[in-house]
Amino acid sequence: MKIISLDPAQCLPEPDAGMGALRTERGNLPLESVDVAARISGLIAGVEVAQGFRNPFDVTLEATYVFPLPDRAAVTAFTMEADGRVVEGLLKERGQARADYDRALSEGRRAALAEEDRPDVFTITVGNILPGERVTVRLTLSQPLPYEDGAATFRFPLVVAPRYIPGSPLDGSPAGGGVAPDTDAVPDASRITPPVLLPGFPHPVRLSLRADVDPAGLELKEMASSLHLVQREGTTVELRPGERLDRDFILRLAFEASTALLLDGEGAFHLTVVPPAVEETRVPRDVVLLLDRSGSMTGWKMVAARRAAARIVDTLTSDDRFAVLTFDSVVEQAFEGLRPASDRNRYRAVEHLSRVDARGGTELLAPLHQAISLLSTASAAEEQPAPGAAGRGGPRDRVVVLVTDGQVGNEDQILEQAGGALSAMRVHVVGIDRAVNAGFLGRLAGLGAGRCELVESEDRLDAAMEQIHRRIGAPLVTDLSLKGLDLEPGTVSHLGSIFPGVPLTVSGRYRDAAPAQGTEAVTIHGLAGGRPWEQTVPGTVVRDPAIGAVWARAQLRALEDGYAMGEHDLEQEIVRTSTTYGVLCRFTAYVAVDTRQVADGAPEHRVIQPVEPPSGWELPAMPAASGMMFTTMAAAAPQAPGGFAPEASALEAFGGSGAVRAAGPAPRSGGHAQAGLRQGGAAAGARQAPARRDPAATARRARATEDRDHRPSGVPGRSRQPAGRPRLLPGRPRRAVRPGPRAGGGRASRRRRGRAVGARGRGPDPAHGRRPGGDRATPVLETRLTGRHGGRLRVHGARSRPGPTR
Fold it and tell me: What is the number of helices (H) and of strands (E) in the chain?
């Protein structure tokens, strides 16, 4: 390697280039453009995605791009275009597709590979791109549109947000080129954690998105985009130029849906049933509310989550019982066990929620297990009451409500360890983010026959909460079954329940591809308010291949969920279903190989395309000496056994300032928290020379302070810690904190200092002083940064109210 020294005068920074950014005439990242063209007809959208790559280097290149797609979309075609040639991709078993790709590269041929890593996370790899050459890959997909309360939603994700990766790192080479190491909880973490660009990085990927809407005979009342500025011409909506790939595109279409049965004439059907006009019934409920308070929820998401959780508590009635759990790396309860939803208990719960701030990592398994235990114990007590105890009015509906952004990487682990128990309960999920993990949250809600409501902004929260209020109660129709046609066993999608304002959608296959006239109808049966209910729906034949593709995708998702929950013998059936119906899944991949040799061998350079930081996330401030990109929203934090890390203080939450590492394999992080503190009034990353002090005078002042502030050791709850000196706790190294203006022992001074966590008389706080497992770590300051006043930092104790400006 040859290193050339450059004259700083020849390397003047660009005025608005962004921290650590480099600018060259040819750019420095391979992905040039993303073009999305959607055709929406009724409740199904056909989409084509084109990704343009260019090699800015002087050697052959392999480019990798990790990106999202709608979680229910069926990818049915893949092509590669280069040098005037179009190569069709073939769908093969994933291992075979990778072998074909590697063989083609070693022989000097162009090749492209499309893989699915999560229901909504995909990877494109394009190899042997010649210097200066452009290559375009195209994906064709079909997706159903969810319909609720008079509007269908076309949601197209545009960025993979950073995800919390628990577990212990694995030995050996990583599975992918991402920034997080593979762990025992997330064996493919390196495949779903692409590096993240600095905010405001220049020359973003050129994005275009166009949606043509065909009402399909329905009266289209309104079209509205909630997160992007759009241009509208008739029934066509198009993004305005200059938008970044940093948030979901959401288009809502207001029209009245109708009950219909669509047959594709080749053995697949799609049924839509509008909720019937039946009286809503309410049964007593046991509700466990789980609120995610991890670091990724910092900012508007935490505010919206608290409001959403409080609104849910407010919907409970005196017949209900409930519990409120808030979680990050630890789980905290508003009160012990399930309590009646009295005014007093609901007030206590809301008061607890009002004190919740974002911190720590998203350890989701522990609160789910705790919720399952609470509901299972209560259900067992109902079935076997104590001798002489009066009955409590019959069976209760067991409900879990989860409020989160879903940014975790161990989805399969969660489904395997908690999915079976959750399927016996009703699970409702409120997803809050502009780049939400919709695939995982939808899978959780589907397990428990509940609903998943997505909130992309505070403006949307009130409307979403009104819907949640209606759906968190008992569904309109339960115990659904389907009869009619000649249905193939095991092919009908999960029926679930019918909720107010939400049509039931069912897909499946039937044996007779051309049923006789008058026999193409299905009858759906169920219970509405405890009484039998049924509806017969006549069929209409429409020659639309999307119907079969949408069914295949739903079938593959159900099989993959079963595999994740321990049914590993389903792998061959998953591969067979995928290859038979031509729909991509996690066990197959599309591979496109050019027949012409263009290079001498494998690519000489490899790049994984970094992604934009998600919109609405409060990212750490950039220090002066930083790399071009930061790998996750967190720098390295001390890691405890089992994937847990010490609690992150407010100084280390997302919104705080701190150091950010350059791209490269990341050490294990303790969640969405970052280490480092930028001192107030100093330039980021700069060190200031300490002021010259008289050591003797300093010692005298210290002794005077100690003598003045010592307390009798027998007073419970009081600390012998001198005033103005930060208390050290296990977890982090000591940092200097400027003492307050008073060091006296008066009542006001003690109130400002707050109680010390782990002070005498209380014992160490497990949420602050110890890691799970009981091992002690390095000391940590019991201080928090809550804001700025007049350019000065306001610091207060971790358990106290904010004190005066110091």
Answer: 12, 37
